[in-house]
């Protein structure tokens, strides 16, 4: 017999039966808006950097902070927000994350200088982190257990498509309006998601342990310096700077691990990483998103610099990947309700590796068809991986650790993307002419390793 207690602000979910159909649709719509905005703003500002630098009278090098500070804020605070969600409720963290993200987006649109825009982007990244840190955990309260794969498929679809179409959408907006509109469009969407979320998102059971602020600070230092290290290494910073950042990263991780010793619900979920299924899901995710990061940074350079395509043409050449993700993610989500995440993810990643190899082997002057079918194959593989991998993550964590598992979903994705983007710089250092193809070759290797890791989960399950 299912037990659900209706409260003024939502429903307490006790046994995995989820929400009724009508409430479920509204709840997933609210989450999808937030997740879509947070994912879109990870990449959407890249295209506008030259225009922003010119209008704000700053250098291209300084304007890169508009991108870096958003990613840094997200990665540094994901796990603290996930841990906070376990204690105060995932619903509360997500709703306040939506509010902060929306207000910060308005601040970005009204920014009058580079420092004001960077501060607004920092706050926007913190709001996005709150959304991304708990959204997967909330899905387990929204969907009944037999339909959970569909929920993960929808979530994967939103994240992948938002990340893929970001540059194209930015190009279209900039062709009709100025750069502040890239951020202003979030405001009405955020308002809708905020008020809808307050009405329909469920209240979940809360953990009894307290939030450890010092552990959160150590976490922010460790992951913040790690992303800073990746970015500075990609921009060939001085060796002394890199060594200082590496030392700081190591120190904060050591302090974090020491502080967490013996904690029953560690913020950096070492307890979950000891589970082979969860650890292999993390490895699969990091390597896959590194492959995606390599491809999505290298391909625009190849399309524009080598093939001479315009920014809008480049955006449309990236579209087949996003379209096939949109088609495959819901299918993979439904299949993950019936079949092993390890097998489904492994098959998808083998297809992704094949698509990336096909891109490396393109003819010297490829046609639109030559490019499109290869991008489509890569999109099929990537779309087939995400929902099963989410189920592997969340299914290997006990219900009371859902927040930490959700936080690791987003953390592994962002670390993978940051790693891939940083590696592109090294590929171009090896060869300015062939850098994009080298990057795609590395991406194919990463996808192959991820496929092996995913199939490895079959052995773990059988044991």
From TrEMBL:
Entry membrane topology: Multi-pass membrane protein
| Ranges of residues in domain Major facilitator superfamily (MFS) profile | 27-463
Q: Which Gene3D superfamilies match?
A: MFS general substrate transporter like domains (1.20.1250.20), Multidrug resistance protein D (1.20.1720.10)
What residue stretch is flagged as signal peptide? none
Q: Which GO terms describe its molecular function?
A: transmembrane transporter activity
Q: Where in the cell does this protein reside?
A: Membrane
Transmembrane annotation, as ranges: 26-49, 61-81, 93-112, 118-143, 155-175, 181-201, 213-231, 237-257, 278-303, 315-335, 342-361, 437-460
What domain of life? Bacteria
Do the record's keywords include Membrane? yes
Keywords associated with the record = Membrane, Transmembrane, Transmembrane helix, Transport
InterPro entries given in the database record: MFS, MFS_dom, MFS_trans_sf
Q: Name one GO cellular component term.
A: membrane
**What protein am I looking at?**
MFS transporter
């Amino acid at each position: 017999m299912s037990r659900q207690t209706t409260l003024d602000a939502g429903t307490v979910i006790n046994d995995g039966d989820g929400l009724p159909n009508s409430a479920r649709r509204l709840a997933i719509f609210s989450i999808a808006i937030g997740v879509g905005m947070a994912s879109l703003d990870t990449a959407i500002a890249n295209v506008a950097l030259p225009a922003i630098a010119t209008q704000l009278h700053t250098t291209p090098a300084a304007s890169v902070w508009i991108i870096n500070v958003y990613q840094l804020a997200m990665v540094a605070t994901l796990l603290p927000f996930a841990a906070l969600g376990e204690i105060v409720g995932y619903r509360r963290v997500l709703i306040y994350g939506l509010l902060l993200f929306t207000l910060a987006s308005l601040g970005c649109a009204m920014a009058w200088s580079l420092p004001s825009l960077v501060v607004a982007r920092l706050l926007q990244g913190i709001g996005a982190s709150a959304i991304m840190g708990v959204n997967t955990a909330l899905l387990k309260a929204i969907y009944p257990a037999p339909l959970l794969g569909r929920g993960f498929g929808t979530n994967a679809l939103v994240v992948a498509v938002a990340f893929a179409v970001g540059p194209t959408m930015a190009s279209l907006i900039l062709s009709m309006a100025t750069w502040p509109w890239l951020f202003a469009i979030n405001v009405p969407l955020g308002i809708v998601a905020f008020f809808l979320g307050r009405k329909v998102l469920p209240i979940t059971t809360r953990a009894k342990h307290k939030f450890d602020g010092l552990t959160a600070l150590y976490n922010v230092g460790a992951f913040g310096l790690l992303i800073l290290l990746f970015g500075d290494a990609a921009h060939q910073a001085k060796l002394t700077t890199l060594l200082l950042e590496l030392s700081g990263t190591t120190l904060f991780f050591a302090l974090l691990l020491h502080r967490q010793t013996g904690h029953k619900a560690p913020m950096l979920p070492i307890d979950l990483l000891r589970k082979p299924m969860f650890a292999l899901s993390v490895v699969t995710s990091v390597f896959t998103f590194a492959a995606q990061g390599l491809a999505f940074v290298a391909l625009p350079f190849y399309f524009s610099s080598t093939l001479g395509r315009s920014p809008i043409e480049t955006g449309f050449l990236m579209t087949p990947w996003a379209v096939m993700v949109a088609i495959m993610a819901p299918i993979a989500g439904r299949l993950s309700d019936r079949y092993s995440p390890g097998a489904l993810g492994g098959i998808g990643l083998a297809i992704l590796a094949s698509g990336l190899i096909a891109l490396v082997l393109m003819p010297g002057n490829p046609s639109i068809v030559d490019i499109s079918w290869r991008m489509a194959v890569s999109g099929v593989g990537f779309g087939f991986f995400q929902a099963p991998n989410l189920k592997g993550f969340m299914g290997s964590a006990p219900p009371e650790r859902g927040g930490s598992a959700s936080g690791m979903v987003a953390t592994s994705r962002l670390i993978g993307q940051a790693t891939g983007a940083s590696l592109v710089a090294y590929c171009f250092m090896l060869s300015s002419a062939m850098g994009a193809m080298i990057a795609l070759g590395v991406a194919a290797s990463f996808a192959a390793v991820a496929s092996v890791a995913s199939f490895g989960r079959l052995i773990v399950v059988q044991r």
